């Protein structure tokens, strides 16, 4: 199996895709990109057990998630994660991960966008043991566009805030996306999520269905699909 | 352009002229020798389109139009159509237009023209005047004037049979992660007098994985509601009967708009007891649980977003703060809430999803229609005895949001460009 393969992708487009974490981002990391005001995403991801500390690396995860750009600078998300393959009598339903992101700076021609975010912000247990995907971070993203290729660079810094069973994105993380006009609507992504280097391919069907195929740690496959629409134009 | 046919009501001329002068309206507009008369063509047109409690009066210089929209699911669509249909009939000499929107016989929002924008309609091949509306401070004054005219297509004692879908869900176990209850709740709603409503409903279960004693048809919320508007943008509302969450009792409240709806202050107090039908037996407790709340609501015009903060004594005698933020994405409403009591902190989201159709048929005596919206709330922590509100005055509270004058003005499009 190929571990390190570098693809140069070309996509032309400005669609912000969902990461496998459930927020707008690259393969797994969040970015500072925000969807247009009123955009609603809903979809599902498959995450392999080999990268899931949550299931003690024993069970694959099926996650259903949705995100809403509630205000142009405020985004909220909810992800429900279910461990697959447990016996029916198991005392497990889903893990709920509410998230919130706030854009502090909008990207301009020479300056990046800056956002802060927090995942798994609420828990039913004050001890924090119900927080399994906790993350608190600041992230910046910048697009660089030429005539044929668009690059998007992201770098972020995470912090361990609050009690949690597991923390994600707790140190420096980053990644890149490449898009080119000739191969629209494909895009290629590569990121480092503080544990693994991940690679992903995005494809957008009918301008609203995002599909992502990812190699996590360049070894294990994950995938996801999301549909998006704008609530301001729907009704 | 064909001018509207005017029917003289000579007996009211002097009364109206004196009234209008007394209330400080521009004498040039209404106090002319032509007098004020009903605009029958406009009334007929709007009545045939399904609007109710319609009256329109004026002369060559002005119009006063009062309507109730029972036709559109989204009241903003009714406002757009009303303004358009009136604009097509306005003489080019018009200098003043007053629009008053009512619901259930209660004056909810009033707008006065500040200026007019000439516009050429390609479709009708005519020049028209589009009034640029500002929010009026004289709602009650114009309401009293309009009350002196005949109203057409009255809504009193007309019945709506409304089919309300209801879905309850709870997390279950691994084999069945989400347990559901799906009900259809037919509701009979009628207006007995201005601002006085009666509603009764049934809960008809279609599918139930939750409580066993909810698997049979039973009486749903059944109550009277009274809504009144007074001067200075003060509303009084009250309800008595059998409400949601198996509560029965009484509740009354006051709300006042400040700065034309930008800020709303309110308070309410209720007393209730528990009442639940278990098979054919009514189990109930005494009415002794006092609940109250004080709240403030801010409207952020730029984003059509409301922020509400309230301090409550809830039905089960717990006290705490609840903060709601919700936004109208056009017709779809969704938002988030957080509840803080000494016992727990809870939160979640809620939404109001429009149900088809967009437009209802004109109502004669009886009409069957689906509910306008499917409302649903999600709670992070499922606790039936914490943060429970009485939910007695749901009609009044919904009206005061959906007919907030600042909110409607921000939705008026071309006619709402004046920001006063």
Number of strands of chain B: 23
Q: How many helical elements of chain A?
A: 1
Order of the strands making up the biggest sheet of chain A = 1-2-3-4-5-6-7-8-9-10-11-12
Low-confidence segments of chain B: 1-33
How would you classify the quaternary structure? heterodimer
The rough form of chain B would be described as elongated
- The amount of beta strand of chain A, in percent, is over 45%
Q: How far apart are the first and last residues' alpha carbons of chain A, in Å?
A: 47 Å
Helix content of chain B: 10-25%
Beta-strand level of the residues of chain B, as a percent range? over 45%
For the secondary structure, the number of strands of chain A is 12
Greatest interface (CB-CB under 8 A), with counts per chain: A-B, 25 and 21 residues
Helix content, binned percent of chain A: under 10%
Low-confidence stretches of chain A: 1-14
Main features:
heterodimer; A: 235 residues; mainly beta; 12-stranded antiparallel beta barrel; 12 strands; globular; B: 420 residues; alpha+beta; 16-stranded mixed beta sheet; 50% strand; disordered N terminus
How would you characterize this protein structure?
The complex is a heterodimer of chains A (235) and B (420). Chain A is mostly beta strands and 235 residues long. Chain A is 2% helix and 49% strand. A twelve-stranded antiparallel beta barrel of chain A has the order 1-2-3-4-5-6-7-8-9-10-11-12. The termini of chain A are far apart. The relative contact order of chain A is 0.23. Chain B is of the alpha+beta class. Chain B is 15% helix and 50% strand. Chain B contains seven helices and 23 strands. Chain B has a 16-stranded mixed β-sheet that branches. In chain B, strands 1-2-3-4-5-6-7 form a seven-stranded mixed β-sheet. The relative contact order of chain B is 0.13. The interface between A and B is medium-sized, with 25 and 21 residues.
Secondary structure blueprint with pairings:
The complex is a heterodimer of chains A (235) and B (420).
Chain A: E1 39-47, E2 61-71, E3 74-83, E4 95-105, E5 113-119, E6 135-145, E7 149-159, E8 172-180, E9 186-192, E10 197-205, E11 209-216, E12 220-230, H1 231-234
Antiparallel strand pairs in A: 1-2, 1-12, 2-3, 3-4, 4-5, 5-6, 6-7, 7-8, 8-9, 9-10, 10-11, 11-12
Chain B: E1 6-7, H1 10-22, H2 27-30, E2 37-39, H3 40-48, E3 52-59, E4 62-68, H4 75-89, E5 96-103, E6 106-121, E7 126-135, H5 139-146, E8 159-171, E9 178-193, E10 196-208, E11 218-219, E12 222-230, E13 234-242, E14 247-258, E15 263-278, E16 281-284, E17 289-300, E18 305-313, E19 319-329, E20 332-340, E21 345-354, E22 366-370, E23 373-379, H6 394-402, H7 405-410
Parallel strand pairs in B: 4-5, 8-22
Antiparallel strand pairs in B: 1-2, 2-3, 3-4, 5-6, 6-7, 8-9, 9-10, 10-11, 10-12, 12-13, 13-14, 14-15, 15-16, 15-17, 17-18, 18-19, 19-20, 20-21, 21-23
